[in-house]
Amino acid sequence: MPAHLECITCHKQFPINQVLYQCSQCNDLLDVAYTFGSPDPKRLKVDFLNRKLSPVPQDQSGVWRFRELLPFLDRFDSVISLREGNTPLWEVPRVAREAGLQHLAVKHQGMNPTGSFKDNGMTTAITQAKLLGARTVLCASTGNTSASMAAYAARADIRAVVLIPEGQIARGKLAQAIDYGATVVQIQGNFDHAMQLVRELSGEGGAYLLNSINPFRIEGQKTIVIELMEQRGWRPPDRIVLPAGNLGNCSAFGKALREMFDLKLISRLPKLTLVQAAGANPFAQMIRSGSRNLIPMQADTLATAIKIGSPVSWKKALRALEWTHGDVVEVTEGEIADSRALLARDGVGCEPASASTLAAILKLSREKKLMFSEEVVAILTGHHLKDPEYILEYHEGKLSHKGAIIPARYQNSLHTVAAESQALKKLLFDHDK
Ligand code: F0G
Question: Does residue 144 have its Cβ closer than 6 Å to ligand 1?
Fold first, then answer.
Protein backbone atom coordinates (compact mmCIF):
# COMPACT_ATOMS: atom_id res chain seq x y z
CA MET A 1 0.00 0.00 0.00
CA PRO A 2 1.41 3.46 -0.88
CA ALA A 3 0.71 4.90 2.60
CA HIS A 4 2.68 5.18 5.84
CA LEU A 5 2.85 7.34 8.98
CA GLU A 6 5.60 9.95 8.98
CA CYS A 7 6.89 12.34 11.62
CA ILE A 8 6.52 15.98 10.58
CA THR A 9 9.92 16.88 12.10
CA CYS A 10 12.41 13.99 11.88
CA HIS A 11 10.52 12.22 9.03
CA LYS A 12 10.84 8.81 10.65
CA GLN A 13 8.38 6.44 9.00
CA PHE A 14 6.05 3.91 10.61
CA PRO A 15 3.66 1.29 9.19
CA ILE A 16 0.22 2.70 8.40
CA ASN A 17 -1.51 0.28 10.81
CA GLN A 18 0.66 0.96 13.84
CA VAL A 19 -1.34 2.56 16.69
CA LEU A 20 0.65 5.73 17.21
CA TYR A 21 -0.17 9.40 17.72
CA GLN A 22 3.34 10.81 18.07
CA CYS A 23 6.78 9.96 16.71
CA SER A 24 8.48 7.36 18.93
CA GLN A 25 11.84 9.03 18.21
CA CYS A 26 11.20 12.77 18.69
CA ASN A 27 7.59 12.88 20.03
CA ASP A 28 6.35 15.17 17.29
CA LEU A 29 3.10 14.90 15.33
CA LEU A 30 2.52 12.37 12.57
CA ASP A 31 1.18 12.71 9.05
CA VAL A 32 -0.44 10.04 6.96
CA ALA A 33 1.95 10.23 3.99
CA TYR A 34 1.44 8.81 0.51
CA THR A 35 3.27 7.93 -2.67
CA PHE A 36 0.62 9.22 -5.06
CA GLY A 37 2.21 8.47 -8.43
CA SER A 38 0.97 10.78 -11.16
CA PRO A 39 -2.74 10.25 -11.82
CA ASP A 40 -4.38 12.31 -14.58
CA PRO A 41 -5.92 15.33 -12.80
CA LYS A 42 -8.71 15.66 -15.41
CA ARG A 43 -9.70 12.02 -14.91
CA LEU A 44 -9.72 12.44 -11.11
CA LYS A 45 -12.02 15.47 -11.34
CA VAL A 46 -14.49 13.57 -13.55
CA ASP A 47 -14.44 10.54 -11.23
CA PHE A 48 -15.04 12.70 -8.10
CA LEU A 49 -18.07 14.32 -9.69
CA ASN A 50 -19.55 11.19 -11.28
CA ARG A 51 -19.58 9.38 -7.94
CA LYS A 52 -22.26 11.80 -6.75
CA LEU A 53 -24.68 10.05 -9.12
CA SER A 54 -23.81 6.56 -7.87
CA PRO A 55 -26.05 4.71 -5.36
CA VAL A 56 -23.02 3.22 -3.57
CA PRO A 57 -22.66 4.66 -0.02
CA GLN A 58 -18.93 5.39 -0.22
CA ASP A 59 -19.50 7.21 -3.53
CA GLN A 60 -22.27 9.35 -2.03
CA SER A 61 -20.08 10.42 0.87
CA GLY A 62 -18.54 13.84 0.35
CA VAL A 63 -15.40 12.46 1.96
CA TRP A 64 -14.91 9.07 0.32
CA ARG A 65 -15.78 10.25 -3.19
CA PHE A 66 -12.35 11.92 -3.05
CA ARG A 67 -10.69 8.66 -1.99
CA GLU A 68 -7.73 8.93 -4.39
CA LEU A 69 -6.48 11.65 -2.02
CA LEU A 70 -6.90 9.43 1.07
CA PRO A 71 -5.56 6.08 -0.07
CA PHE A 72 -4.72 4.67 3.35
CA LEU A 73 -7.14 1.76 2.87
CA ASP A 74 -6.76 -1.22 0.53
CA ARG A 75 -10.50 -1.24 -0.13
CA PHE A 76 -13.28 1.22 0.47
CA ASP A 77 -16.35 -1.02 0.67
CA SER A 78 -16.53 -1.23 4.46
CA VAL A 79 -16.10 2.41 5.44
CA ILE A 80 -18.26 3.75 8.29
CA SER A 81 -20.15 6.63 6.71
CA LEU A 82 -23.20 8.79 7.38
CA ARG A 83 -22.97 10.40 3.88
CA GLU A 84 -21.00 13.26 5.41
CA GLY A 85 -19.66 16.19 3.40
CA ASN A 86 -21.35 17.43 0.21
CA THR A 87 -21.97 20.69 2.08
CA PRO A 88 -23.25 23.87 0.41
CA LEU A 89 -21.27 26.92 -0.70
CA TRP A 90 -23.47 30.01 -0.45
CA GLU A 91 -23.03 33.67 -1.37
CA VAL A 92 -23.81 36.02 1.55
CA PRO A 93 -24.48 39.44 -0.04
CA ARG A 94 -25.40 41.33 3.13
CA VAL A 95 -22.15 40.45 4.89
CA ALA A 96 -20.25 41.04 1.63
CA ARG A 97 -21.68 44.57 1.42
CA GLU A 98 -20.78 45.24 5.02
CA ALA A 99 -17.23 44.00 4.34
CA GLY A 100 -16.89 46.06 1.17
CA LEU A 101 -16.38 42.94 -0.93
CA GLN A 102 -17.84 42.25 -4.37
CA HIS A 103 -18.55 38.66 -3.36
CA LEU A 104 -18.28 36.66 -0.20
CA ALA A 105 -19.13 32.97 0.10
CA VAL A 106 -19.50 30.65 3.06
CA LYS A 107 -19.04 26.89 2.99
CA HIS A 108 -21.34 25.51 5.63
CA GLN A 109 -19.87 22.46 7.36
CA GLY A 110 -22.71 22.66 9.86
CA MET A 111 -24.83 20.93 7.20
CA ASN A 112 -23.15 17.63 8.09
CA PRO A 113 -24.99 14.67 9.72
CA THR A 114 -24.13 15.74 13.29
CA GLY A 115 -23.97 19.43 12.45
CA SER A 116 -20.25 20.14 12.29
CA PHE A 117 -17.10 19.71 10.20
CA LYS A 118 -15.96 17.01 12.60
CA ASP A 119 -17.97 14.44 10.63
CA ASN A 120 -15.59 14.81 7.66
CA GLY A 121 -12.72 13.62 9.84
CA MET A 122 -14.67 11.18 11.97
CA THR A 123 -15.67 8.90 9.10
CA THR A 124 -11.99 8.33 8.22
CA ALA A 125 -10.79 7.99 11.82
CA ILE A 126 -13.56 5.62 12.92
CA THR A 127 -13.00 3.51 9.82
CA GLN A 128 -9.34 3.20 10.82
CA ALA A 129 -10.39 2.46 14.44
CA LYS A 130 -12.58 -0.41 13.22
CA LEU A 131 -9.78 -1.74 11.03
CA LEU A 132 -7.39 -1.70 14.00
CA GLY A 133 -9.93 -3.59 16.12
CA ALA A 134 -10.40 -0.79 18.69
CA ARG A 135 -12.91 -1.72 21.39
CA THR A 136 -13.25 1.80 22.78
CA VAL A 137 -12.77 5.18 21.13
CA LEU A 138 -11.87 8.17 23.22
CA CYS A 139 -11.82 11.96 22.87
CA ALA A 140 -11.65 15.22 24.78
CA SER A 141 -14.01 17.81 23.40
CA THR A 142 -15.44 21.29 23.48
CA GLY A 143 -18.61 19.61 22.18
CA ASN A 144 -18.62 18.95 18.45
CA THR A 145 -16.00 16.22 18.40
CA SER A 146 -17.89 14.40 21.13
CA ALA A 147 -21.20 14.61 19.22
CA SER A 148 -19.59 13.39 16.03
CA MET A 149 -17.52 10.63 17.61
CA ALA A 150 -20.53 9.36 19.57
CA ALA A 151 -22.60 9.06 16.38
CA TYR A 152 -19.92 7.34 14.30
CA ALA A 153 -18.98 5.01 17.16
CA ALA A 154 -22.64 4.01 17.41
CA ARG A 155 -22.66 3.25 13.67
CA ALA A 156 -19.46 1.21 14.05
CA ASP A 157 -20.69 -0.54 17.20
CA ILE A 158 -17.67 0.61 19.21
CA ARG A 159 -17.90 1.99 22.74
CA ALA A 160 -17.42 5.79 22.89
CA VAL A 161 -15.95 7.63 25.88
CA VAL A 162 -15.89 11.44 25.85
CA LEU A 163 -14.33 13.85 28.33
CA ILE A 164 -15.77 17.36 28.41
CA PRO A 165 -15.11 20.41 30.58
CA GLU A 166 -17.99 20.69 33.05
CA GLY A 167 -20.43 23.49 32.26
CA GLN A 168 -18.41 24.74 29.31
CA ILE A 169 -19.97 23.10 26.29
CA ALA A 170 -23.09 24.15 24.38
CA ARG A 171 -26.25 22.25 25.34
CA GLY A 172 -27.02 21.05 21.80
CA LYS A 173 -23.69 19.25 21.62
CA LEU A 174 -24.05 17.69 25.06
CA ALA A 175 -27.54 16.44 24.14
CA GLN A 176 -26.15 14.77 21.01
CA ALA A 177 -23.29 12.93 22.72
CA ILE A 178 -25.61 11.58 25.42
CA ASP A 179 -28.30 10.63 22.95
CA TYR A 180 -25.93 8.70 20.68
CA GLY A 181 -25.07 6.53 23.67
CA ALA A 182 -21.54 7.64 24.52
CA THR A 183 -20.15 7.45 28.05
CA VAL A 184 -19.99 11.18 28.75
CA VAL A 185 -17.73 12.28 31.58
CA GLN A 186 -17.59 15.90 32.71
CA ILE A 187 -14.32 16.86 34.33
CA GLN A 188 -13.81 19.69 36.76
CA GLY A 189 -11.28 21.36 34.52
CA ASN A 190 -11.01 22.90 31.08
CA PHE A 191 -10.61 21.39 27.61
CA ASP A 192 -6.81 21.39 27.87
CA HIS A 193 -7.00 19.28 31.05
CA ALA A 194 -9.39 16.89 29.31
CA MET A 195 -7.02 16.62 26.34
CA GLN A 196 -4.10 15.81 28.65
CA LEU A 197 -6.18 13.14 30.39
CA VAL A 198 -7.28 11.35 27.21
CA ARG A 199 -3.69 11.27 26.02
CA GLU A 200 -2.77 9.53 29.27
CA LEU A 201 -5.73 7.12 28.96
CA SER A 202 -5.24 6.12 25.32
CA GLY A 203 -4.06 2.57 25.01
CA GLU A 204 -5.74 1.51 28.30
CA GLY A 205 -8.10 -1.38 27.55
CA GLY A 206 -7.48 -0.96 23.81
CA ALA A 207 -8.83 2.62 23.81
CA TYR A 208 -8.08 4.48 20.58
CA LEU A 209 -7.80 8.27 20.61
CA LEU A 210 -9.93 10.17 18.09
CA ASN A 211 -8.94 13.79 18.69
CA SER A 212 -7.33 15.56 15.73
CA ILE A 213 -3.88 14.57 17.03
CA ASN A 214 -4.89 11.32 15.33
CA PRO A 215 -3.69 11.84 11.74
CA PHE A 216 -6.59 9.86 10.26
CA ARG A 217 -8.96 12.66 11.40
CA ILE A 218 -6.92 15.12 9.38
CA GLU A 219 -7.24 12.96 6.26
CA GLY A 220 -11.04 13.23 6.20
CA GLN A 221 -11.03 16.94 7.01
CA LYS A 222 -8.88 17.53 3.93
CA THR A 223 -11.94 16.88 1.80
CA ILE A 224 -13.63 20.09 3.04
CA VAL A 225 -11.21 22.15 1.00
CA ILE A 226 -11.01 19.62 -1.84
CA GLU A 227 -14.79 19.85 -2.24
CA LEU A 228 -14.61 23.65 -2.02
CA MET A 229 -12.22 23.67 -4.99
CA GLU A 230 -14.54 21.37 -6.92
CA GLN A 231 -17.50 23.69 -6.21
CA ARG A 232 -15.47 26.59 -7.60
CA GLY A 233 -14.55 24.71 -10.79
CA TRP A 234 -11.06 24.04 -9.31
CA ARG A 235 -10.33 27.79 -9.25
CA PRO A 236 -8.82 28.58 -5.82
CA PRO A 237 -10.17 31.67 -4.07
CA ASP A 238 -7.66 34.29 -2.91
CA ARG A 239 -8.30 33.61 0.74
CA ILE A 240 -9.94 30.95 2.93
CA VAL A 241 -10.87 32.04 6.46
CA LEU A 242 -11.41 29.48 9.22
CA PRO A 243 -11.66 29.37 13.01
CA ALA A 244 -8.68 27.99 14.90
CA GLY A 245 -8.97 26.11 18.22
CA ASN A 246 -7.00 22.91 18.62
CA LEU A 247 -5.56 23.72 15.16
CA GLY A 248 -6.47 20.40 13.51
CA ASN A 249 -8.70 21.78 10.80
CA CYS A 250 -6.25 24.36 9.47
CA SER A 251 -3.60 21.61 9.49
CA ALA A 252 -5.91 19.52 7.30
CA PHE A 253 -6.50 22.46 4.95
CA GLY A 254 -2.77 23.06 4.55
CA LYS A 255 -2.09 19.39 3.78
CA ALA A 256 -4.98 19.19 1.31
CA LEU A 257 -3.88 22.32 -0.54
CA ARG A 258 -0.32 21.07 -0.82
CA GLU A 259 -1.42 17.66 -2.09
CA MET A 260 -3.88 19.18 -4.59
CA PHE A 261 -1.12 21.43 -5.88
CA ASP A 262 1.34 18.53 -6.17
CA LEU A 263 -1.28 16.47 -8.01
CA LYS A 264 -1.96 19.41 -10.39
CA LEU A 265 -5.61 19.64 -9.33
CA ILE A 266 -5.05 23.34 -8.56
CA SER A 267 -2.47 25.73 -9.93
CA ARG A 268 -1.86 27.94 -6.87
CA LEU A 269 -2.44 27.97 -3.12
CA PRO A 270 -4.96 30.35 -1.54
CA LYS A 271 -3.93 32.21 1.60
CA LEU A 272 -5.23 30.66 4.84
CA THR A 273 -6.46 33.17 7.42
CA LEU A 274 -6.89 31.56 10.85
CA VAL A 275 -9.10 33.22 13.42
CA GLN A 276 -8.87 33.09 17.20
CA ALA A 277 -10.97 34.75 19.86
CA ALA A 278 -8.97 37.42 21.72
CA GLY A 279 -9.40 35.47 24.97
CA ALA A 280 -8.18 32.17 23.47
CA ASN A 281 -5.35 33.28 21.22
CA PRO A 282 -2.14 31.34 22.01
CA PHE A 283 -1.37 30.74 18.34
CA ALA A 284 -2.03 34.37 17.36
CA GLN A 285 0.29 35.48 20.17
CA MET A 286 3.00 33.16 18.97
CA ILE A 287 2.80 34.39 15.37
CA ARG A 288 2.69 38.03 16.46
CA SER A 289 5.79 37.64 18.58
CA GLY A 290 7.69 35.93 15.76
CA SER A 291 8.42 33.03 18.09
CA ARG A 292 8.36 29.36 17.11
CA ASN A 293 7.31 28.12 20.48
CA LEU A 294 3.70 28.09 21.61
CA ILE A 295 3.07 29.26 25.16
CA PRO A 296 -0.14 27.74 26.58
CA MET A 297 -2.63 30.08 28.22
CA GLN A 298 -5.85 29.99 30.22
CA ALA A 299 -8.52 30.35 27.50
CA ASP A 300 -11.66 32.40 27.97
CA THR A 301 -14.32 33.00 25.29
CA LEU A 302 -18.08 32.57 24.88
CA ALA A 303 -17.31 30.78 21.60
CA THR A 304 -16.84 27.60 23.64
CA ALA A 305 -15.91 25.46 20.60
CA ILE A 306 -12.58 27.30 20.36
CA LYS A 307 -11.98 27.84 24.07
CA ILE A 308 -8.57 26.15 23.93
CA GLY A 309 -5.35 27.40 25.49
CA SER A 310 -2.92 24.64 24.53
CA PRO A 311 -3.65 23.53 20.95
CA VAL A 312 -2.03 20.19 20.15
CA SER A 313 -1.52 20.67 16.40
CA TRP A 314 0.21 24.06 16.43
CA LYS A 315 3.27 22.84 14.54
CA LYS A 316 1.13 21.54 11.69
CA ALA A 317 -0.81 24.83 11.71
CA LEU A 318 2.42 26.79 11.48
CA ARG A 319 3.43 24.66 8.51
CA ALA A 320 0.06 25.37 6.84
CA LEU A 321 0.57 29.12 7.34
CA GLU A 322 4.04 28.95 5.85
CA TRP A 323 2.90 26.92 2.85
CA THR A 324 0.05 29.32 2.06
CA HIS A 325 1.64 32.62 3.19
CA GLY A 326 -1.27 32.82 5.58
CA ASP A 327 -1.99 34.96 8.61
CA VAL A 328 -3.82 34.92 11.96
CA VAL A 329 -6.49 37.38 13.06
CA GLU A 330 -7.90 37.91 16.56
CA VAL A 331 -11.46 39.05 17.15
CA THR A 332 -13.35 40.25 20.21
CA GLU A 333 -16.45 38.75 21.83
CA GLY A 334 -18.57 41.64 20.54
CA GLU A 335 -17.28 41.23 16.99
CA ILE A 336 -18.10 37.51 17.04
CA ALA A 337 -21.59 38.10 18.46
CA ASP A 338 -22.56 40.80 15.94
CA SER A 339 -21.07 38.95 12.96
CA ARG A 340 -23.06 35.84 13.84
CA ALA A 341 -26.29 37.85 14.00
CA LEU A 342 -25.49 39.76 10.78
CA LEU A 343 -24.96 36.49 8.92
CA ALA A 344 -28.34 35.27 10.17
CA ARG A 345 -29.87 38.28 8.38
CA ASP A 346 -28.60 36.66 5.19
CA GLY A 347 -30.60 33.58 6.15
CA VAL A 348 -27.55 31.62 7.24
CA GLY A 349 -27.22 30.51 10.84
CA CYS A 350 -24.08 29.20 12.51
CA GLU A 351 -22.61 28.73 15.96
CA PRO A 352 -20.45 31.46 17.56
CA ALA A 353 -17.02 29.96 16.79
CA SER A 354 -17.93 29.75 13.10
CA ALA A 355 -18.90 33.43 13.04
CA SER A 356 -15.40 34.40 14.15
CA THR A 357 -14.51 34.04 10.45
CA LEU A 358 -16.91 36.82 9.43
CA ALA A 359 -15.75 38.95 12.34
CA ALA A 360 -12.21 38.60 10.98
CA ILE A 361 -13.27 39.49 7.44
CA LEU A 362 -15.06 42.63 8.69
CA LYS A 363 -12.01 43.54 10.77
CA LEU A 364 -9.59 43.07 7.84
CA SER A 365 -11.89 45.21 5.72
CA ARG A 366 -11.98 48.00 8.34
CA GLU A 367 -8.19 47.89 8.40
CA LYS A 368 -8.18 48.17 4.57
CA LYS A 369 -6.45 44.80 4.25
CA LEU A 370 -9.01 43.37 1.79
CA MET A 371 -9.50 44.45 -1.82
CA PHE A 372 -13.04 44.88 -3.23
CA SER A 373 -12.41 42.18 -5.83
CA GLU A 374 -10.68 39.73 -3.46
CA GLU A 375 -12.34 36.31 -3.55
CA VAL A 376 -12.88 35.19 0.01
CA VAL A 377 -14.49 32.03 1.39
CA ALA A 378 -15.34 31.63 5.08
CA ILE A 379 -15.69 28.16 6.56
CA LEU A 380 -18.69 27.86 8.87
CA THR A 381 -17.78 24.97 11.09
CA GLY A 382 -20.92 24.35 13.15
CA HIS A 383 -24.72 24.44 12.87
CA HIS A 384 -26.98 27.28 14.02
CA LEU A 385 -28.75 25.15 16.63
CA LYS A 386 -25.69 23.87 18.45
CA ASP A 387 -25.83 26.82 20.87
CA PRO A 388 -29.35 28.34 21.02
CA GLU A 389 -28.73 29.78 24.49
CA TYR A 390 -26.07 32.11 23.11
CA ILE A 391 -28.44 33.32 20.37
CA LEU A 392 -31.35 34.00 22.70
CA GLU A 393 -29.17 35.79 25.24
CA TYR A 394 -27.82 37.99 22.43
CA HIS A 395 -31.30 39.00 21.30
CA GLU A 396 -32.52 39.47 24.87
CA GLY A 397 -29.58 41.80 25.47
CA LYS A 398 -28.25 39.46 28.17
CA LEU A 399 -25.13 38.06 26.54
CA SER A 400 -22.25 38.93 28.82
CA HIS A 401 -18.55 38.25 29.10
CA LYS A 402 -16.45 38.90 32.22
CA GLY A 403 -19.43 40.57 33.88
CA ALA A 404 -20.06 43.07 31.05
CA ILE A 405 -23.08 42.95 28.71
CA ILE A 406 -22.14 42.66 25.02
CA PRO A 407 -24.07 45.35 23.09
CA ALA A 408 -26.19 43.70 20.38
CA ARG A 409 -26.11 45.65 17.12
CA TYR A 410 -28.47 43.28 15.31
CA GLN A 411 -30.85 42.64 18.20
CA ASN A 412 -34.33 41.36 17.37
CA SER A 413 -36.86 41.30 20.18
CA LEU A 414 -39.52 38.74 20.98
CA HIS A 415 -43.09 40.15 21.20
CA THR A 416 -45.89 38.97 23.47
CA VAL A 417 -49.50 40.11 23.02
CA ALA A 418 -52.98 38.98 23.98
CA ALA A 419 -54.44 36.28 21.73
CA GLU A 420 -56.75 38.58 19.79
CA SER A 421 -56.54 40.34 16.43
CA GLN A 422 -56.84 43.96 17.63
CA ALA A 423 -53.70 43.63 19.70
CA LEU A 424 -51.92 41.98 16.78
CA LYS A 425 -53.02 44.66 14.32
CA LYS A 426 -51.80 47.34 16.69
CA LEU A 427 -48.44 45.65 17.07
CA LEU A 428 -47.91 44.76 13.42
CA PHE A 429 -49.49 47.52 11.36
CA ASP A 430 -50.10 50.65 13.44
CA HIS A 431 -46.79 52.21 12.53
CA ASP A 432 -47.78 52.04 8.76
CA LYS A 433 -50.63 54.53 9.29
N1 F0G B 1 -15.31 25.52 14.99
C2 F0G B 1 -16.03 24.64 15.70
C3 F0G B 1 -17.51 24.74 15.64
C4 F0G B 1 -15.39 23.68 16.50
O5 F0G B 1 -16.11 22.81 17.19
C6 F0G B 1 -13.97 23.66 16.56
C7 F0G B 1 -13.26 22.69 17.39
C8 F0G B 1 -13.27 24.59 15.78
C9 F0G B 1 -13.96 25.50 15.02
C10 F0G B 1 -11.78 24.64 15.77
O11 F0G B 1 -11.24 23.61 15.01
O12 F0G B 1 -9.87 22.56 16.80
O13 F0G B 1 -9.55 21.96 14.41
O14 F0G B 1 -8.85 24.18 15.24
N15 F0G B 1 -13.83 21.88 18.18
C16 F0G B 1 -13.17 20.80 18.89
C17 F0G B 1 -14.19 19.96 19.62
C18 F0G B 1 -12.02 21.20 19.71
O19 F0G B 1 -13.85 19.30 20.62
O20 F0G B 1 -15.32 19.87 19.17
P21 F0G B 1 -9.79 23.04 15.38
Answer: yes
